[in-house]
Specification:
The protein has 289 residues and is mainly alpha-helical. The protein folds into 2 domains: 203 residues, Cation efflux protein transmembrane domain (Alpha-lytic protease prodomain-like); 76 residues, 2-Layer Sandwich (Alpha-Beta Plaits), CATH 3.30.70.1350. The protein contains 8 helices and 3 strands; from the N terminus they run H-H-H-H-H-H-H-E-E-H-E. It has a 3-stranded mixed β-sheet with strand order 1-2-3. It is elongated. The two termini are 46 Å apart.
């Protein structure tokens, strides 16, 4: 769990640092160009900074060990933070769309497009580096907070590419492209918000994990001395995964043998899912004739 906490905190801190750099750069670029697509990108970076800070705080609480009042730990805070992030993303998209229509009506033109191009390239480079780091952390921790951040930043790569294209087109006199790209960014924010929010909602509702369930059946069925299993239940709570099932064993086994088989299977599961809390109920079954 210490590796989980250390790596997840590093990922959220990296998100905060990148967001601060991009907020400063995009604010300057927006003031210099008047581009509504850059405004959308700025709003997104402001959102990134707010949510990354909120995620950092939530992660500290989520990593607090289980106590007398919270027997299953505090991992749900990750899902709550991700759900709040989804709501912020939708609000940002609404603001951007309204500004895009305002620019269309006023027929405002973009100026100093070279500044927008430089800042967009900087944003793409920093975001790609951050996403690669986040993916490395996700492979080791499966953190929902890092996953939510990474999904958003993956979208940011395309978003910054769209802004870059809008700046290039505005530079050759195609000013309407700026508003069109901004509307597209707003739609993309809504799609990302739905993905993050749906995942967080499923975790809060303790949705069964079908891939994990299938893997548990495979591990138990292939274990020596096991007759199979039933009533497999799996759920995620922040970094923790809770797995429980009924282990079917030959009714003629001695108690110590049944216990040894259960321990061996539990170790196999924890080896594959390091942050799993495994609860096994031993069920006697009649041996096949």
């Amino acid at each position: 769990m210490s590796d989980y906490g250390h790596l997840s905190r590093q990922a959220t801190l990296a998100s905060i640092v990148v967001a601060i750099i991009l907020i400063v750069a995009k604010t300057w670029a927006y003031w210099s160009t008047g581009s509504v697509s850059l405004l959308g990108s700025l709003l997104d970076s402001l959102l990134d900074g707010m949510t990354s800070f909120m995620n950092f705080v939530a992660l500290r609480f989520a990593l607090v060990p289980a106590d007398e009042d919270h027997k299953f730990g505090h991992g749900k805070l990750e899902s709550i933070a991700a759900l709040a992030q989804s709501a912020f993303m939708i609000g940002s998209a609404v603001v951007l769309v309204l500004n895009s229509f305002d620019v269309m009506i006023d027929k405002r033109q973009v100026v100093n497009t070279h500044i927008g191009i430089y800042v967009s390239v900087l944003a793409i480079v920093l975001t790609v580096a951050l996403v690669l780091f986040q993916k490395s952390v996700m492979r080791k921790t499966r953190s929902l907070i890092v996953e939510a951040d990474s999904l958003h930043y993956q979208g940011d790569i395309l978003m910054n590419g769209a802004v870059l294209l809008a700046m290039v087109l505005a530079g050759i006199g195609i000013f309407w492209a700026d508003s069109v790209m901004a509307l597209g960014i707003g739609a993309f924010l809504c799609v990302n918000a739905w993905r993050v929010g749906a995942k967080a909602f499923e975790d809060l509702m303790d949705r069964q994990l079908p891939d994990v369930e299938q893997r548990i059946y495979e591990l138990v069925s292939g274990a020596q001395g096991s007759e199979g299993c039933h009533d497999v239940r799996c759920r995620q709570s922040g970094p923790n995964m809770f797995i429980q099932f009924h282990l079917e064993l030959d009714e003629n086994l001695a108690l110590w043998s049944a216990h040894e088989i259960g321990d061996r299977i539990e170790k196999q599961i924890i080896k594959e899912y390091p942050y799993a809390d495994v609860l096994i109920h031993h069920d006697p079954t009649k041996a096949a004739p």
